[in-house]
Amino acid sequence: MRDSNKLNSEIYLVCQDCGSKALKSPINKGKTQFSVSTWYEGRCDVCGKLKTVTEVRDFRFPIFED
User: Fold this and answer.
1) What does 34-57 look like in DSSP terms, one character per residue?
2) Does residue 34 form part of some domain?
3) 22-42, pLDDT tens digit by residue?
4) Please, which contacts does 19-24 make with residues 24 or more away whose CB atoms are closer than 8 Å?
5) Alpha carbons within 13 A on the beta-carbon side of 52
6) Can you give the pTM of this predicted structure?
7) Range of the domain at 46
8) Distance CA 19, CA 14 (A)
9) FRET partner for 44 with CA separation of 20 to 30 A, picked from 4, 30, 53, 58?
10) Residue 39 lies in a domain
11) What Cα–Cα distance (Å) separates residue 6 from each residue in 2, 22, 34, 55?
């Protein structure tokens, strides 16, 4: 896990909604989601909801602003 966020917490697992939202931010320009990821039921470290999640590296370690 890289310290690549402004949420003052470690982000290891991320859901599709939060990962996609982060990639749309201008600060993450040029970053893309991997085309193949392993997804499973877990708690998203960004929104805190129990959802289908993957590792943040599959979104190329974006900066999460909120």
Assistant:
1) -S----EEEE-TTT--EEEEEEGG
2) yes
3) 999 999 999 999 999 999 999
4) 19/54, 19/56, 19/58, 19/59, 19/62, 22/46, 22/59, 22/62, 22/63, 22/64, 22/65, 23/59, 23/62
5) 6
6) 0.84
7) 13-59
8) 6
9) 30
10) yes
11) 12, 11, 22, 18
